[in-house]
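Trying the structure run again after the queue cleared.
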Amino acid sequence: MQVDSWISQPIAFWSSLAYLVPIFLIKQKTELTRAWSICLIALTISSMFCHASFIKLSVAMDFASIGIIMGFFSIVHFTKGKNLYPALAILFLLQILVNFSLGKWPKIALSILIFLLAFYEMILTYGFSFLKSKNLLRSMLILSLSFLIFLLDDQRIFFCDHSGWFAGHTLWHLGTAASAYFYSKWRFMDDKSA
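Done. Tokens:
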């Protein structure tokens, strides 16, 4: 980390731009894909802010935007798509407040809880037929591998040089962006009638 520069973690800062890629690859343009794209833009900005400054608020915003991405379709499901933007904004602000007051591991636990809620929403919406989707399985596999790299990097076990051009957190960004792409592809482009 470069505490005396404008950007504390340059490679993690720039690799945050990978979250914009799924936006350009989503072919379908609907109100739902626009809302999803706005959440991906918020994730990009909050991740860049986090890795530029590393102040407590920026870290809380980064975790909150991750939570919104993971919980996006649960929010859509439980609000039935009505008042989606206010619901997303309120939950984003609540997550910032909660994440601001939590330590690192409770933040990670909250993210896992949101992920499980998203998994529950998939079961409610699709039964277990979603397990047949290659794009969803790709997304989950890449997300799992990325999370493992995130943990190894966080514990300074592997890929932990944040001053160079290759760091575990960079792989986390690239992997979760690829996961978001395959997840977007599954949600917006795959035929789920089978």
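The helical segments are 10-15, 21-25, 31-53, 56-79, 84-101, 104-126, 134-154, 168-188. Worth checking whether this holds up in the mutant runs.
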